[in-house]
Give the backbone structure.
Amino acid sequence: MTGPLRIRVFAHSLVSDWNHGNAHFLRGLSRALIRMGHQVRSYEELGSWSLSNLMRHEGETAIEAVDEFRRAYPELDIHFYRNDAGLDPFLEEELKDVDLVLIHEWNEPWLVNRVLALKERFGFRALFHDTHHRAYTRPGEILRFHLHKVDGVLAFGEAIRRIYAEGFGVPRVWTFHEAADTQVFVPKSIPKSADVVWIGNWGDDERTQELMEFLLQPASALPGQRIIAYGVRYPQRALEQLGAAGIDYRGYLPNLKAPDVYNASLLSLHVPRRQYANGLSGIPTIRVFEALSCGVPLLCSPWTDAENLFRPGQDYLCVPNGRAMAAEIQHLLKDDNARRQLGENGHDSVCKHHTCAHRAEQLVGIYEELAG
């Protein structure tokens, strides 16, 4: 590489993480690239869905979350745009002298395609970054993007990579997993105030049955344990079921507060949406990386680490059903050594292989491959 890259990132939002887990990784990736010496600027639409809902639903917590984000990531250069007559001149000015444009899949096709329309004129490389299951579940939505104009696709799992390569016919596709921002997600020695924590959204019925079996049923079977849950978009019926199971539901958790919550818990749970336990097995979502990065022992409902990212049984434990989950929770809460070893193993694997710095190096390598 001859010098620092001028990188531009188009994302739904970096400012808001409300129902928007992709923001976690994109924040950390951007900072890691900046610390490597590259120039990074990101763009999001003014009044994005996530930020609008954050402000609408969370009151003072929303203001505090945005302020905390600004303090934690002062180096991030975020610009806002509107979908109006000024958009095209704005894009032309911003993209006329850059090396790499990273376009996340949670952007509207009208924006993505307008960015790609400038590619031949300005000569930048463009990569489409997909961290969602809709290429598998709703492929027609992906075909609205002008994929023939991108230089390649970054897919957050091998199963998604194959869909782009074999299903959509994209010539160059790389598996590009998410990772933990280890500047934020670190082990801390703080008092334990919970036995078990679940951090995750209800999931639009994509894991309702799984949450019933692997969260609510074990909680009901362990009435003496302190089990807490965080997340948004829980329907009223779900809130009633959480309460009946003895789970302390605490609503929206700004991601920058998640490390303290993990570290204050003896155990954490991962219940993947069914797409990631079935056809897209092998794709751990961002919470897996973040929980392990904090050194908290992680218990999972069934999913297959098809890409060998971790050491199942050493870095985390999978259980086959709700009864086994309750039994494993009960066992680990009584075994300090087992919890400590499990937490240390998971933290070690993240630090060695799955940090935002690792992914930043991979991204620069991909750019060099394209440019060379």
